[in-house]
Design brief:
alpha+beta
Length: 96
């Protein structure tokens, strides 16, 4: 098994199997399972940044004061099993 340094993945562009950019890795979630820290999910895109900074809902309310309406983007949440990290410099999301 190849070792991947997670701190180097944050900010990497992520692609779908066809080579289209999905966004950048903004957050990596992990939990303790049987006493070991296990990566469970990657959050990708601008919505993930807003979630991480806790501004997604604040921003929508703030801009609605000025008449702006619409929906803020949600983070794309990718389970660990669907992330192909064979080339950590170019992560690819595997099809479901």
């Amino acid at each position: 098994m190849q070792e991947v340094r997670l701190e180097l993945l944050v900010g990497r562009k992520v692609y779908d199997p066809d080579g289209c950019k999905l966004g950048e890795i903004e957050e990596i979630l992990a939990e303790t399972i049987d006493g070991e820290l296990v990566v469970t999910e990657f959050h990708i895109g601008a919505g993930a940044t807003a979630e991480r900074l806790s501004i997604r809902h604040f921003g929508a309310r703030f801009f609605s004061l000025f008449g702006a309406h619409g929906h803020s983007k949600k983070a794309l949440k990718i389970p660990w099993q669907r992330m192909n990290l064979e080339d950590p410099a170019r992560p690819v999301v595997l099809p479901e």
